[in-house]
């Protein structure tokens, strides 16, 4: 029989790593399962300014996550790189199955996070990695001295647009409304940046090109008029970055755990789901603010709740 852990944590983003830290420090046998790289979305964030206690002189997502990973490992959290395909969450022992392995735990903390929402235009999938991107930190250097476009109007979209100005010669924000939704302090920086322009009341309807992104059709949602945007002939292509929100990584739990209509997991303030012994933390759950600091708080709360429930056994 495989080992039965006190708690299994799905995901090694800020929520999962914080949960691992707190669980391990409470002397719970802890397993963290992550299918990709540690950090989730924050791992591809170039600059962090608002995490309490960060390096004030400059903190990146990867540098912050590296320290979180070391802390979780210091207190004994075991690690596995695997993709869970099936879960059995009822009963005293929860079972999580991948293609080759089976993991058992008395408690499960779901910290699977969320991913970038697609722009939703025709041809998008065809040009992913060929001009269409959702990660400025990953791909900005590919567009050195090129023109790029950013879809979205929230904090992330505007912040990433400003980051892209370090590389691109011009950045145009395409937003479906006539004003940004980003915080005023962020807007002020964007409006003051001479490299940033705007397409207001607009959406991208289609992207096209010969193997690489060379053109797109942008529609004005108020007038219905469309315009063609084509790459400068000397460039031969341009970049299109989408930052219009996130989709929760919760499909594995559909029909098992209570969710809202968007797929975010319902919890109480102590991270309990509708299933005893199953908790959710971080971006995958319903919450008003999705930030590193709130994800870490969620993970800590979930782990403490596990520890308290386990003390009932003694």
Automatic annotation (TrEMBL):
> Gene Ontology terms, cellular component aspect?
cytoplasm
Kindly state which keywords UniProt assigns to this record, in alphabetical order: Disulfide bond, FAD, Flavoprotein, NADP, Oxidoreductase, Redox-active center
Q: What class of enzyme is it?
A: oxidoreductase
Gene Ontology terms, MF aspect: thioredoxin-disulfide reductase (NADPH) activity
Q: What processes does the entry annotate via GO biological process terms?
A: removal of superoxide radicals
The EC number(s) attached to this protein equal 1.8.1.9
Reaction(s) the record says it catalyses: [thioredoxin]-dithiol + NADP(+) = [thioredoxin]-disulfide + NADPH + H(+)
Query: How many and how are cofactors bound here?
Result: Binds 1 FAD per subunit.
Cofactor(s), by name: FAD
PROSITE patterns listed in its UniProt record: PYRIDINE_REDOX_2 (PS00573)
Q: Name one Pfam family in it.
A: Pyr_redox_2
User: InterPro entries attached here?
Assistant: FAD/NAD-bd_sf (IPR036188), FAD/NAD-binding_dom (IPR023753), Ferredoxin-NADP_redctase_2 (IPR050097), Pyr_nucl-diS_OxRdtase_2_AS (IPR008255), Thioredox_Rdtase (IPR005982)
- SUPFAM superfamilies, per database record: FAD/NAD(P)-binding domain
UniProt keyword annotation of NADP present: yes
Taxonomic superkingdom = Bacteria
Q: How does it assemble?
A: Homodimer.
Q: Which family does it belong to?
A: Belongs to the class-II pyridine nucleotide-disulfide oxidoreductase family.
NCBIfam families cross-referenced by the UniProt entry: TRX_reduct (TIGR01292)
What is the protein named? Thioredoxin reductase
Origin species, per record, is Clostridium scindens (strain ATCC 35704 / DSM 5676 / VPI 13733 / 19)
Q: What is this organism's lineage?
A: Bacteria, Bacillati, Bacillota, Clostridia, Lachnospirales
Q: Which gene encodes it?
A: trxB_4
